[in-house]
Hints:
Elements: H1 2-5, E1 11-14, H2 21-51, H3 58-86, E2 90-93, H4 94-127, H5 132-135, H6 138-164, E3 173-174, H7 181-187, H8 193-226, H9 231-259, H10 268-292, H11 295-310
Parallel strand pairs: 1-3
Antiparallel strand pairs: 1-2
GO molecular function: G protein-coupled receptor activity; olfactory receptor activity
Family: Belongs to the G-protein coupled receptor 1 family.
Pfam families: 7tm_4 (PF13853)
Amino acid sequence: MAAENSSSVTEFILAGLTDQPGLQIPLFLLFLGFYMVTVVGNLGLITLTGLNSHLHIPMYFFLFNLSLIDFSFSTAIIPKMLMSFVSRKNIISFTGCMTQLFFFCFFVFSESFILSAMAYDRYVAICNPLLYTVTMSPQACLLLLLGVYGMGVFGAVAHTGNIVFLTFCADNLVNHYMCDILPLLELSCNGSYINVLVIFIVVTIGIGVPIVAIFISYGFILSSILCISSAEGRSKAFSTCSSHIIAVSLFFGSGAFMYLKPPSILPLDQGKVSSLFYTIVVPMFNPLIYSLRNRDVKLALKRTFSGISFS
């Protein structure tokens, strides 16, 4: 790789979450537990959606992909993070670091845009129910999904390209538990305001565009709900959106807190804690949010277990 040849650094050491020896094993067990819950929850939701035909509708098509993204996202980050708790030096090659950065950015952008696609789905379902089947046809859903993953590729290529051509001279200790954008930029010898500007612009697109789409969708949804005369009808409409609102708040809140503040306001050590939310907590909670608060998913779960018990 050309970038690697221009740097004296061929590998990085990930500092991890903490350097306190007494916390290493407890944190290893804690995050291993988080990862197991994430894997079981997301793969369980993927399996439920695939096995139950009454969940083969646009809403659960996007939820299926959200679970797939969350499972892949956590798998790209947590196993390497766990190594920092049980090894003296958590070493990652230059190529491995750039690969992790690429997939990290890909899944973050994909999750941002899949959440906005889900908001659009709710908008059509509540505001134009008679046209829902036509508007959210399989072809339309597929096009939306291609847009989601297309933006994922854009974000990954833009961020990784911005970092991969930097020069890393001597210091190879990354002050993070993963290869993230800001710690790598801080480590480089020739990072400039242009690199910071590129990061800010790309992050603004990745967070700003989906947030605007979500706010517009929910603006129309709120307007339609307020026009419903019965309290029961309003309550039912709100309940269909509540899980999505919680997921959006968790993901975008933690992401904006991490990346849309200057480093002087949010030091990297605090940034590591903040990034735990969208890299570990959000992928773990999403399947819980959508299963515990969703009648269709709970019904599918009962049917699946009933079928297994009957067999």
